[in-house]
Design a protein that fits this description.
The complex is a heterodimer of chains A (295) and B (410).
Chain A lengths: L3 H29 L6 H19 L3 H27 L6 H24 L14 E6 L2 E6 H23 L1 H11 L1 H6 L4 H26 L7 H15 L7 H18 L5 H15 L11
Antiparallel strand pairs in A: 1-2
Chain B lengths: L2 H20 L3 E7 L6 H20 L3 E3 L2 E3 L1 E7 L4 H13 L5 E3 L4 H14 L3 E3 L15 E3 L4 H13 L7 E7 L2 H16 L3 E8 L6 H8 L5 E5 L2 H13 L6 E5 L5 H7 L7 E4 L16 H12 L5 H19 L8 H13 L1 E4 L2 E4 L16 E6 L2 E6 L19
Parallel strand pairs in B: 1-4, 1-5, 5-6, 6-7, 8-9, 8-10, 10-11, 11-12
Antiparallel strand pairs in B: 2-3, 12-15, 13-14, 15-16
């Protein structure tokens, strides 16, 4: 059992990355009803932005996060009306069309990135990458990587900022009103279009910053997006579709399950275990871990 | 004759003339991974095939009798997916009517393409695809220019086992794909044979974050860490080890260490990592076909692509030379009939030629039927960002740097 604390800590660190990937994704789904399958590609593009900014500016990537946020906030702000146009169609199923649209968008991003950035993997160096905290007493030992700890702090900060925005600002009030009832919110004076644009821009900005974080902790390449799209989707489903408060718990659970399986059981079964537990939870509670998601 | 009829006849005549012209070149289908998870390796393989075609065509083509026949490559993207690879092969054979085929980078895709070329009786040479599983079906029409990974893996472990102080313990991980799991199995078997205790042997899901596994492994303090994976996974593993601050005495990886992008991504952390290969830019070879030695080939690659060549790229170019030699031997002219392709298989089995890559000679019996048995495996190590051969002793360019310098002191 001496490995259990290490497995739990690593699981929490892994879960922190999933929180950062899924939190804004869940918010966009809850309000705009867009399952953005390009989420992984926003991560990839953010990671490349971080990589090149670091290459040219020689500045620690954590200091470049605000620049990446602003750039991708702008891109998201410009793109949202196009997605809104798809969502507001009257023929067919607009939700399904939006899903297909973002899936296509992801493919375009990936293909374009491969053309411009090539197929090699890169790494973003950071001062946080060096060193770790190590504790040892008898048979007990614990290693905490400083860069992953920075990732945990980042996820915590993002979650707290979003929580503050949603609970204590007029923008948050408008977002919550839109999530409950679009028509009623509009009648109460909520600017639907502008709120949606800012919300989607927040999502792309946060997701791109998470890409930089992943580039520092793991690596950067044009193929990385698909994997993170899947995990973002799993976390959101596990949390309950559109239930933002459930995301941290769902992400941490997913990270801990993976970590414990990797350490204690056959690592080859890790993903099967993750999927198995996810399906089991959905069979018992189709609206997610807390029973508060969409049906 | 009306204007319309004239136009139709003119079109038919043009198409027929075009057909006749096309028959003057060898059409070679290439199924590689131009996109998807294995796009890096797939594009490295593409560079190898392209460089051979460019070099041949610069000389006017393959000399058959008194005439030269250019080669033309027709690409199919396997998208790093075996079923897409098989579909691409089928399309190249049935629609493009290719005479010959070059095989994919990844063993999993090569395994799917093999039955297709066997069905249509199209000779194919894999310039990559190192898993021993590629050779298990013993296809008549499938050849390979790189020996199976169990030879390469065993050679690396042999080099490491004889270092001082001798490593006593090891952990082995392999990513869950055909090549990587075969590599890990090869490492594991060779370690046991060398009397090195394997503390942990795991096949892990592709792309899995291995930090929890490595953190737990840190408590075991293994002397060696051996990993079978592809480019991105190798980079992630080194970063993970740095992040948990564990430096083993030696870190052995295969494939990707010899790819220039590995050292470029990891900078100083790439140094002292061991890898397996069958060729480097400095391998001593001598040839009369296209490139006179390794250095000449490396220079040609650098000129064409501005990227240093690795052994996968070299293996793909060497595959072209094997075809070239066999076609010349049977005086084959395009397009190749089924009878001529059968004859070509026999000619390939008889190929025994010195190339810039080393000797190409395909096995004609045994477990690795049609794999190249002409070249030996090398152990390489990255030293100051450059791939250097460090084993076996008779071909070592430089002494090994061992044990590894701790990450924090780099």
């Amino acid at each position: 059992m001496e490995l259990l604390p290490q497995a739990l800590v690593d699981g929490i660190m892994l879960g922190a990355i999933y929180i950062a990937i899924a939190i804004a994704f869940s918010l966009v789904f809850g309000v705009l009803h867009v399952i953005d399958f390009a989420v992984g590609e926003w991560i990839m593009l953010g990671a490349f932005a971080g990589f090149y900014l670091n290459l040219w500016g020689k500045v620690d990537p954590f200091l470049m996060l605000p620049i990446v946020f602003i750039v991708f906030f702008g891109l998201g702000y410009l793109l949202q009306p196009v997605i809104q146009r798809v969502l507001s169609g009257h023929k067919g199923n607009p939700l399904l069309m939006a899903l297909v649209f973002t899936f296509g968008l992801g493919m375009i991003f990936r293909g374009t990135a491969q053309t411009f950035f090539g197929f090699y993997s890169h790494s973003i160096p950071s001062h946080f990458s060096n060193g770790s905290f190590y504790f040892e007493k008898g048979s007990f030992f614990l290693t905490i990587s400083s860069v992953r700890l920075a990732g945990l702090v980042y996820s915590g900060v993002i979650t707290l900022i979003l929580n503050y925005l949603l609970r204590y600002t007029d923008f948050g009030l408008a977002v919550r009103a839109l999530a409950q009832n679009k028509e009623a919110a509009g009648l109460m004076g909520v600017n639907n279009r502008r709120t949606n644009k800012v919300l989607y821009a927040l999502y792309t900005g946060i997701t791109a910053m998470t890409g930089v974080l992943i580039g520092v902790i793991i690596s950067v390449n044009t193929k990385m997006g698909a994997e993170y799209s899947i995990f973002a989707f799993f976390v959101v489903v596990l949390a309950g579709m559109g239930y933002l408060a459930g995301v941290p718990a769902a992400a941490l659970l997913l990270g801990i399950i993976q970590s414990v399986f990797l350490v204690y059981l056959d690592p080859g079964w890790t993903l099967l275990a993750v999927f198995g537990i996810l399906y089991l939870i959905l069979v018992v509670s189709p609206t997610g871990l807390f029973g508060k998601g969409w049906v | 004759m009306s204007l319309t009829k004239s136009a139709i006849f003119a079109t038919i005549a043009t198409v027929m003339a075009g057909g006749a012209l096309r028959a003057q070149e060898f059409k070679i289908g290439v199924v590689v991974e131009l996109s998807g998870d294995n796009a890096t390796g797939g594009n490295v393989a593409k560079r190898g095939y392209d460089l051979w075609a460019m070099a041949v065509n610069e000389t006017g083509g393959i000399q058959i009798g008194k005439k030269k026949y250019p080669v033309k490559l027709f690409y199919g993207d396997a998208q790093s997916n075996p079923s897409q690879g098989a579909a691409a092969a089928e399309r190249l054979i049935t629609q493009e009517h290719v005479d010959l085929m070059f095989g994919p980078y990844a063993s999993s895709v090569a395994n799917a393409v093999g039955p297709v070329v066997e069905k249509y009786k199209i000779p194919m040479i894999n310039g990559s695809a190192e898993s021993p599983l590629v050779w298990k079906p013993k296809f008549k029409f499938v050849f390979g220019s790189i020996p199976p990974v169990n030879f390469t893996g065993a050679a690396c472990i042999d080099t490491l086992a004889h270092l001082s102080p001798a490593p006593k313990t090891a952990v082995v991980f392999g990513s869950n794909d055909t090549f990587s799991s075969s590599t890990a199995t090869a490492f594991n078997e060779a370690l046991i044979k060398q009397g090195i205790k394997v503390l942990k042997f795991n096949i892990v899901p592709e792309g899995q974050d291995l930090t929890p596994l490595l953190s737990a492994m840190k408590g075991l303090r293994p002397d060696l860490i051996c990993f079978g994976g592809h480019d991105e996974e190798l980079i992630n593993l080194v970063k993970d080890l740095h992040q948990i601050d564990y430096t083993p005495k030696a870190l052995l990886m295969h494939y990707g260490v010899t790819e220039p992008a590995f050292a470029e991504a990891l900078k100083g952390d790439a140094n002292q990592v061991f890898g397996g290969a069958v060729w480097t830019e400095t391998t001593k070879t001598s040839s009369k076909i296209l490139w006179k030695d390794s250095q000449t080939y490396a220079a040609a690659s650098l000129k064409a692509f501005k990227v240093a060549a690795d052994y996968t790229q070299g293996g793909c170019s060497a595959a072209g030379i094997a075809f070239q030699v066999a076609l010349q031997k049977i005086n084959a002219t395009p397009p190749l009939s089924e009878a001529k392709r059968e004859e070509l298989v026999k000619a390939l089995e008889a190929v025994d030629v010195e190339t810039f890559y080393g000797r190409i000679k395909f096995a004609t019996d045994g477990d690795y039927f049609h794999a190249n048995s002409g070249i030996s495996s090398l152990t390489v190590q990255i030293q100051n960002g450059v791939v250097k051969a460090v084993g076996p002793a008779k071909v070592a360019e430089v002494p090994t740097q061992y044990p590894m310098t701790p990450w924090a002191k780099r």
